[in-house]
Amino acid sequence: MTSAAYVLHSRPYKESSALVDFFTAQGRVRGVLRAARGKVGSIARPFSPLELELRGRGELKTVGRLESAGIPLLLTGEALFSGLYLNELLIRLLPAEDPHPVMLEHYGLTLQALAAGRALEPLLRAFEWRLLDELGYGFALDRDQHDQPIDPTALYRWQQDIGLVPVVQLQPGVFQGRELLAMAEADWQTPGALAAAKRLMRQALAPHLGGRPLVSRELFMTLKESKRD
Questions:
Q1: Taking CA 89 as the corner, what is the angle to CA 210 and CA 6, rounded to the nearest 5 degrees?
Q2: What sections of the chain are H helices per DSSP?
Q3: What HEC string does 28-50 produce?
Q4: CB 165 within 8 A of CB 139
Q5: Residues near 23 by Cβ (< 8 Å), separated by ≥ 6?
Q6: Please, which pLDDT band fits residue 38 given cuts at 50, 70 and 90?
Q7: pLDDT tens digits for 212-228?
Q8: What is the average per-residue pLDDT within 122-131?
Q9: 167: which residues sit within 8 A by CB, 6+ positions away?
Q10: pLDDT recorded at residue 101
Q11: Which residue of 100, 110, 121, 129 is most buried, as measured by CB atoms within 10 A?
């Protein structure tokens, strides 16, 4: 069966093959790409829309056919590192062969927006939020743990498996109600909303990433530091 696909990661395998993680309509799948150093190998690169046919019934399949399905998206600089970050999130969080067609579509649109030079932070926050929601880890941004409307003048902290909990005193890691309401509406003009969204997504993603840091995030920070120097 042929499926739309993107390459998430590829590494050499045996003498001339590659072990490739694909994001498809059937979910994240892994396949052996034979003759990876030839023409077909040049097609199997990240951020390129592909048509993929896999063979085999086990977890590790064989690539039967791989063809280009559109113009490869050119990502450079911070957009490139952002694309690598998206790929790493999908590899780390998506269960194998768990279909998420809506997420696949959103991924393709996000790549197009990155290639077009759109602002990075809103795109990354929207992708993180959509991924959490797709995996069943989403939570309300406009209501607290007691299903009460978020008060724009109040303070809240995020708690895993519970959601947003009202707090009385200012403490590290808390969020202002007006920031949360702005996030719910994707209103990034509200002062502090975008920075708060980044903190909230890091808190919400951390339990599902385990203790291992994201390589792409560390590379991104290194790039930013080198630019400042």
A1: 145
A2: 39-43, 77-93, 101-115, 120-134, 177-184, 193-209, 215-228
A3: EEEEEECCCCCHHHHHCCECCCE
A4: no
A5: 5, 6, 8, 87, 90, 94, 104, 107
A6: confident
A7: 888 887 777 776 666 66
A8: 96
A9: 155, 156, 157, 174
A10: 94
A11: 100
Tokens of 184: 């719910």
Q: What one-character DSSP code corresponds to residue 137?
A: -
CA distance 37 to 10: 12
CA 40 to chain centre: 26
Of the candidates 5, 195, 103, 42, which has an alpha carbon nearest to the alpha carbon of residue 31?
Answer: 5
Neighbouring CB atoms inside 10 A of 35's CB total: 12
Sheet containing 175-176: which strands, arranged edge to edge? 163-167, 155-159, 175-176
Helix H or strand E encompassing 18: strand 17-24
pLDDT band at 72 (very low <50, low <70, confident <90, very high): confident
131 bridge partner residues = none
**pLDDT (mean) for 86-104:** 95
